[in-house]
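May I ask for an example protein's residues together with how it folds?

___
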Amino acid sequence: RLMLENRFVEYENALSEPPFRAMRINTIKADKELLKKHFQFVDTPTEFCDESYYLPPDTKRLGNHPLHHAGAFYLQEPSASSVVEAIGIEEGDFVLDLCASPGGKSTQAAAKLNNTGLLVSNEFVASRVKPLTSNIERMGIVNAIVYSQRPDRIAESFCDFFDKVIVDAPCSGEGMFRKESAAVENWSEENVRSCAERQLKILESAAQCVKPGGKIVYSTCTYSFEENEGVIARFLKNRTDFKLVKPIKNFGEPAFARYAPDTENIEYARRIFNFNGGEGHFAAVLIREGETEPNGVVLCPDLFDPMDKELKLFAEFNKENFEGEVPLNTVNKNGFVYITPFEASKNEPRPVQSGVLAGVCKNNRFIPEHSLYNNTVFVPKRHIDLAVGDVANVAGTALG
């Protein structure tokens, strides 16, 4: 009430309305025209993202749709899609998503990269890594490396490395009150303060990772000023080589200057309330002073060893089943064959997954993984084209 003053009534009234939901098209695999054939609501995009479309309130079980399983779209709360749009990711960028699970912002960033550059997705909480890797595979992303490390450990290994860094920081979740009852039950003033301290540390790690001239987007899904304007103000006080800039895409409301009166251009940060077309978000774009220079890292290095026994098995499988030669960035990791976008040095943390897991070699035989077929880069010689409506028929036939 104190924060919104005369607009609190709008917020209060919105709490009794159904939560906003949206579908974001995965442009790596699909486009608007394909989705419009199956969903009438794919017409006018949300104000946050041109590929994001509101779901009608009565939409059910969309996660079971064949196109969802195929990776044609991602179900994402609409205001969450504002964060990646705000920072302006371009093809060829090196991008870090520091708190990545379940993968909404990582997969959105990957679509912007369009299988170019490099995406590093990190999730510290081990139990949350599997949903992240699953979504990266489902969306057909080939240039991602997944880690499960503390943010400061990532900073040690990737200092001054990335063009763009996404920090969707763990928060008190006030923006999820209408959507998730657990967010209300778990809220406390102590948790807000604890989150703010953790968020500042994560943002400081992100600052070490971004190149001079690069950008960070800091976001939360909470309303508390301690976790939003307060964190930005404290960060900028310590890191005078950063400054706030306007988001690439305008949305929501300006941040509140009264909560960071000594922070220049704090109004460039944006707030989204439940009366702004989303459940609630805060996003601030920070640029590091200096000029961005190429970091000299070789992507898709020449790793393929034609004398390696397991890689020979994969080469034979590839020749029989796929168009084109074996990619030069194919590597054998203890019998697991990966097509990796980037080979980390021995001093860097071991990734959970690097690029595409093509398959595993067992008993002198190459066994492919689903991820080898679940992207648009590797083109099979033999395939069956099925209309969406045919999927149930095929399944029924297979079952007898």
Summary: The two ends are 61 Å apart (CA to CA).
